[in-house]
């Protein structure tokens, strides 16, 4: 099931304000992060190596 974020433009609200609310909603739901993660396939061994490097920091 795909959840599509929606933002209704309120009466007397500028487009920019509605766009800011939309961007904030996408950020809170983690959609951009997931999109970046799925953009390029990462082999399981690369994921493990990346996780180990992150753990050392």
Briefly say what this structure is:
The protein is mostly helical. The protein has helices at residues 15-29, 31-39, 44-56.
What does this molecule look like?
This protein has 57 residues and is an all-alpha fold. It has a domain of 30 residues. The protein contains three helices and no strands.
Tags for this model:
mainly alpha; 3 helices; elongated; 57 residues
Portion of residues in beta strands equals under 5%
Instruction: State Rg.
Output: 17 Å
Query: What distance lies between the first and last C-alpha atoms, to the nearest angstrom?
Result: 37 Å
Assign the structural class, choosing from mainly alpha, mainly beta, alpha/beta, alpha+beta, or little secondary structure: mainly alpha
Average per-residue pLDDT, rounded, comes to: 86
- Give the % helix: 55-70%
The run of helices and strands is HHH
Q: Provide the low-confidence segments as ranges.
A: none
Report the biggest beta sheet as strand number plus sense, adding barrel if it closes.
none
Inertia-based shape: elongated
Number of helices: 3
* Assembly status: single chain
Using DSSP, what is the number of strands?
Answer: 0
Task: Itemize the secondary structure elements and their pairings.
Blueprint: H1 15-29, H2 31-39, H3 44-56
